[in-house]
Design a protein that fits this description.
Number of helices: 6
Oligomer: single chain
Strand content: under 5%
Number of domains: 1
Radius of gyration: 17 Å
Length: 146
């Protein structure tokens, strides 16, 4: 894959997932080593906010949609909340304005878990919000409302 050929083969996707798994394992080891220092309320809130804002609204809209099409805003919310840039900015702001802490590991654990374990990454507008095989999708499910 390169800047002109943006597609993944099964092998390159598996290699990406392996890299994400390595980051997940490092994050989990650090969390395990610092279990007693993690503020669990903060950890759970940081872990959950990614999906509460970024996934659940789009998932509900997708399930309510008769043809599988939902507004682009749901994709934007998903991609924003599941972005490593957003997670880094949130962690940096938290460390600067609250304090650096081990609970921030919730962010890479969530994002790398999604990528490594479930194969989920950022969502293009051209595919259904929920994973499906092209043969399973409803007619028009690949289109997104403006």
């Amino acid at each position: 894959m390169d800047a002109k050929n943006r597609f993944e083969t099964k092998t390159t996707f598996a290699l990406c997932r392996l890299e994400w798994l390595a980051i997940l394992v490092v994050s989990l080891v650090l969390a395990f080593q610092h279990l007693s220092e993690i503020r669990w309320g903060v950890f759970i809130a940081l872990f959950a906010v990614i999906d509460v804002i970024g996934y659940l609204p789009g998932a509900f809209a997708f399930r309510r949609s008769r043809d599988g099409r939902i507004a682009r805003g749901y994709y934007v919310a998903y991609n924003t909340m599941h972005s490593l840039v957003t997670a880094g900015a949130l962690a940096g702001a938290w460390a600067l304005f609250v304090r650096p802490e081990w609970a921030l590991l919730a962010l890479p654990i969530h994002l790398m878990g999604d990528r490594a374990l479930f194969g989920n990454s950022l969502k293009p507008f051209s595919v259904p919000f929920e994973p499906s095989n092209p043969s399973d999708s409803l007619e028009g499910a690949h289109a997104v409302r403006a």
